[in-house]
Amino acid sequence: MKSYRKELNFNLPARRAYVNITSQVQTCIDESGIKEVLVLVNAMNITASVFVNDDESGLHQDFEKWLENLAPEKPYSQYKHNGYEDNADAHLKRQIMGREVVAAITDGKLDFGTWEQIFYGEYDGKRQKRVLVKIIGE
Hints:
This protein has helices spanning about 20-30, 55-70, 90-95, and strands spanning about 1-10, 15-20, 35-45, 50-55, 100-105, 110, 115-120, 130-135.
């Protein structure tokens, strides 16, 4: 049994953004040498997410609009959490979009459907964040 662990680092200039990290995850799989297994990819910050969807800019704009309707950033005073920080909406957005992805690896490649890609979702950017890639298998 082999084990591989790597952290991907992000410091995005915008408060909210979506980054396709599929190629970075595949690079981790290649580096691990593990061919048949499941890979765990998870955001290591409570105001960011990792999820699978299509890499289409209109869809990303739809995510933004939908999430902002569900948990608007402003007014900051609408949230009891806000005080020292102003990121209650980011916590809620992460809860909706999810913490992690577990994906199959077959013959050393992500075993995805036609349009599936892995994304890092940022909801409270402008500071250092991490994503864990963990692979354990043969």
